[in-house]
Amino acid sequence: MANFRQHHNFKGQTRLFPHQQLRSGYQRINRQNLEDSSPVPAKELLELFGKLHSRLVRRSGLYLLQPANFDKNRTNFHKMPLKVTYVVSDNHSLDHGIYDNRNKHIDKATKINYIMYEYFVDIWNMSHEVVVTNEWGQEFHPSKLYYKGLLGDLCHEKADAAGTVMFTPTERLKYFKFLVSTTKEMSLHFIFRAPPLPYSHNLFALPFDTNIWISCAIVLSLCGLVIWIIMSWEAKVASFAANRQMHNENAASFLDIVMMQIGVVCQMDYFHEPRSTAGKIATFSLLLGFSYLYNAFCARIVVLLQATANNLHDYKALYEAKMDMGVEATSYNIYYFSHPNSRTNEDYRKLIYQKKIAPNNKFLPATDGMRLVQNSYFAFHVELTTASDLILATFNNQEKCAVRKVNSIFKEDKPYLASPINSTVTEYLMIGFHRLFETGVHSRESRRRFNKLPPCRGRNSAFISVGLIECYFAIEIFLIGFTLCLAFFLLELASGVYRKNQST
């Protein structure tokens, strides 16, 4: 029996079978712990643990114990499934929209992350298992304490990782581990075509600056005063008075001089003419000077009719402008615009939603919203690279030159991929995605799938029609004058009737 339990090598030394080696190791360690309380060296424990997970290998007729190697990189998961949850708004996004670049503007974040996870599972020899949902599930149920949608899949361990990026509010930190941001090119903005200047300015006041307008008023007043003095002197000269009587003209009053100055400014005819040489020189100088000003004014108006307003630099100015507004119909936009939250400027969120969005339900698909931007003066809250794809596909060069963007009402926050807080694959996710970043794989895919706003390649000449908005100030002057005229006419009529009644 003893001969069976022992075997001799070629040098005649006694050698134990593997199970005897393990038993001997355990006995030695236990004996050491009983004799003294000194800890067992970590290296010795690691060697023994390796023998526990070792296997027998037959070499030269002998069975030898081959310990497990714990120093080797563990990059082989033997096709272990990695469950990844994605937010998908179009059912065909994961069928044919990943590699053929069809409908690039739909589910952009999901598509690029799907490709990143395909590379990731190849690194670790995993299998990619897809979990699909149609919303992020932003709201946290206060009584049942759970999320739904993508966040719910992570909380309830239906998925190991998120395949669509999410915002990073502080209340989510105790439930999720935020990993990497794979969509740094994506951001939310209000996109609109810059409206013509009359939408925000009085077109007829823009050709000259304030100093020129003040100078023109001073020159006109001085010339009018000089002409009034000269024509008042002419009324007292007998020769000039006889000439007026021959042509059945009355002496010019102060209001007649005012009407004469208005006629000069507007390049129109006037009734009273000076008879003296001094009066004619003053009138000629006034006519010649204001003819140049009139030509400059008209030329500048033509340029301003083709110009666009560049004073809309934030959503506050955009709200005050005479423009309709809409929002891309994604679940996070609908939630954050419709509910009070800490991620937005609450005052303007409420104003924009109640005055601009809610009355006509302006939550629109990206294609419909950008079509309104193209065909009218409409501000659309949309993801920037999504808008860039549609602008490149549908806008002409003149429309591209008019495209503007302002920041969203959302607080600036880069969205991240996430995993459950205690997930066992978190470290592997971090290592794998950083490897994709370092090797340039992510950069290549980002350049292929994310477009910037197209540049303006020179402005083409275009015919600009003049509408009511451009003529608003002129129509306003006409209506004010007509109202005053009617009011004074009624006053004079009433005064005449009163005097007639008093005389009788």
TrEMBL record:
One of its GO terms (cellular component) is plasma membrane. The keyword Transmembrane helix applies. Keywords: Cell membrane, Glycoprotein, Membrane, Receptor, Transmembrane, Transmembrane helix. Its main location: membrane. The keyword Zinc does not apply. It is a multi-pass membrane protein. The chain crosses the membrane at residues 212-231, 251-271, 283-305, 462-491. This is Ionotropic receptor onIR75p.1.
